[in-house]
Design a protein that fits this description.
The protein is mainly β. Among the domains are: 88 residues, no CATH class; 83 residues, Ubiquitin-activating enzyme E1, FCCH domain (Elongation Factor Tu (Ef-tu), domain 3, Beta Barrel). 3% of the residues lie in helices and 46% in strands. The strands form six sheets. The protein has a 34-stranded parallel β-sheet that branches. A seven-stranded antiparallel β-sheet has the order 44-52-47-49-50-46-45, with no helix packed on it.
Length: 580
């Protein structure tokens, strides 16, 4: 070491090569190779001797090992953008320019993360570079903001969720990333973004605030969908004190008019304490809410735990797909569409699990293009929780091939599907059942319920297991359960099926819980025969797959036990022989 610097023993190395000639003589070639000077910190690099082709290795920013070592080459040209990491001015003139590794640059190269990380972020965005945060827990400055230029990108990467933990002080937002055009992107991967504050504290804090700086809502090609893709992969959002304790974000991620974001294998968890959906607060992903439209939000293989809203799907957000084994667990609402939201369209929930939520899906506006398919949806109920799997205004919704169940906690009042409004939709192929825990049965109270003034719903092909009521409707019978199965319009019954269509049949109450059903076409039924009643509008608790004992009065009149009429007339549906 000399004058505080780590120095090589030689400044240059001369290599001599002897090449034998035909005459037997030796042609000598000599080349002098500069040997990098080794310095311990940035100050020593600034003072290092310079010359043509001079190089240096910096072992750290303030002291050796506080950042990855970097190799620099000296240039006689002054630094164009001195940041004391990628470009370091020399005290004798010229500039030391870093030879940056392709794998990404250590964020500590700019100095302490507690004070200088903003410079690192600005450099990464300006030059479309990857910024790497090594293992450890780092308290970052409040409200870190960075803008990504029109054609640019920033990558922020750690060594793994909860291996790299980036903490922010109480009352502070985390990262705010502004994308300035349709070609601007961000990529955040493999780390934890944590807050030392609580979700209820003011001001409300956001872990990752995504902002559209450029106007992308004009005519094609400047439409929201015509933008580059960004992603958030393997990132955990939580409180700095751990999981479901005191600390947590008010909103983990907020995206306003920023389009085409992929959320893959992320974990969103709230501050906790108490029953799920009651004392838990915070939102996992908040989409929309502004005047510009944002589209294309794909959530795959992620977990939303103990939040008020797993995903808040607000105004002018469109094209939300939640799939790939995503878990929505213990939330007030797994997916929430708030009342008054406008411009919200297209919602898919598929191949995922909703468990122990007050609502798996709670749509208060009737999102156009709503598909809920192939999920396991287990509702929760307590004295303050409604326990509804899917509650929606159905504007052409499709709810198909799901399993609706309950958690075994003495549920009362649980509902699988509750249609609160709308005109037209399909509910088919679902299984509705309760739970059996060590011999104790916990029924799903109502499989499907319709509020008043619903019309155009097609309900068929569902299976009902441990339920108290299968279908409960406060709407006019002629508007509900139009069938859609064999024997219905467009799907005539074959002669061998022994079916009788039910269309405008009179349904009158006899003694309690007995219905006299008149079928307006002759059918080969006989007294005492068992029949299968399928999708008959106006009959509560009867649907496809339910075998109902009857007394056949004649070929068109029969009595059904343990069935209620919700009106004077039935609609749709079929009555058939019990399959052999």
């Amino acid at each position: 070491m000399k004058n505080g610097q780590y120095l090589s023993k030689l400044d240059t190395l001369t290599v001599v090569i002897c090449v034998n000639l035909l005459s037997g003589a030796c042609a000598v070639h000599a080349q002098t190779i500069p040997i990098p000077v080794i310095v311990g910190n940035n100050s020593q690099l600034e003072s290092a001797a310079t010359s043509t082709n001079a190089s240096a290795v910096r072992l750290g920013f303030q002291y050796p090992g506080d950042a990855e070592s970097l190799t620099y080459m000296w240039s006689s040209t002054s630094c164009s953008a001195p940041d004391y990491a990628s470009q370091v001015p020399s005290n004798t003139g010229g500039c030391w320019k870093a030879q940056l590794p392709a794998k990404g640059v250590d964020a500590r190269e700019w100095g302490s993360l507690s004070t200088n990380v903003a410079s690192a972020l600005a450099w990464a965005a300006a030059y479309s570079q990857k910024l790497v945060f090594p293992p450890g827990t780092y308290l970052l400055p409040a409200n870190l903001s960075v803008s990504v230029p029109q054609i640019g990108s920033i990558t922020i990467e750690g060594m793994g969720s909860d291996v790299t933990i980036l903490e922010f002080p109480s009352g502070s937002d985390g990262f705010s990333i502004t994308v300035d055009g349709v070609y601007s992107t961000f990529h955040i991967r493999d780390l934890t973004i944590a807050t030392k504050g609580t979700p209820s504290s003011t001001p409300h804090t956001v872990g990752l605030n995504l902002i559209q700086g450029g106007n992308v809502s004009g005519p094609a090609p400047n439409v929201p969908g015509n933008t580059a893709q960004s992603d958030i992969v393997g990132v955990t959002f939580r409180g700095a004190d751990g999981y479901t304790l005191s600390d947590g974000w008010y909103a983990a991620v907020s995206a306003n008019a920023v389009s085409n974001i992929n959320f893959i294998s992320d974990y969103f968890v709230s501050a906790g304490g108490g029953n799920p959906g009651v004392n838990y607060v915070g939102t996992g992903i908040s989409l929309g809410g502004g005047s510009q439209i944002g589209v294309g939000y794909n959530v795959s293989g992620s977990t939303f735990l103990d939040l008020t809203y797993g995903i808040n799907y607000g105004s002018n957000a469109q094209g939300l797909t939640v799939t790939g084994g995503t878990n929505l667990v213990g939330n007030t609402s797994g997916i929430y569409v708030p009342p008054g939201a406008t411009g919200t369209a297209e919602l898919i929930l598929a191949n995922s699990q909703c468990g122990y939520n007050e609502y798996c899906v709670n749509d208060d506006i009737g999102v156009f293009g709503e598909l809920i398919s192939n999920n396991l949806i287990a509702t929760n109920y307590s004295s303050s929780l409604a326990g509804v799997g899917v509650q929606t205004i159905c504007a052409g919704c499709t709810i198909t091939d799901n399993v609706f169940s309950v958690f075994p906690i003495s549920p009362s009042g649980t509902r699988g599907v509750y249609i609160t409004g709308g005109t037209g939709g399909v509910i088919s192929g679902n299984t509705f059942t309760g739970a059996n825990d060590n011999g104790t049965t916990y029924p799903l109270t109502t499989a499907i319920e319709f509020a008043p003034a619903i019309s155009g719903m097609d309900v068929y092909g569902n299976h009902y297991g441990i339920t108290t009521y299968n279908v409960s409707s406060a709407s006019a019978p002629s508007n509900i359960i139009t069938g859609g199965g064999i024997g219905q319009a467009g799907n005539p019954a074959p002669a061998w099926a022994g079916l009788a269509s039910v269309s405008g049949a009179i349904c009158t109450h006899g003694s309690p819980n007995i219905v006299e059903l008149t079928v307006n076409s002759a059918a080969p039924f006989v007294t005492g025969q068992m029949v299968l009643v399928s999708g008959v509008g106006g009959l509560s608790y009867v649907s496809s797959g339910v075998v109902t004992p009857i007394t056949v009065l004649n070929s068109t009149q029969m009595t059904l036990n343990n069935v209620l009429c919700s009106g004077a007339y039935t609609s749709g549906g079929i009555v058939s022989d019990v399959p052999p």
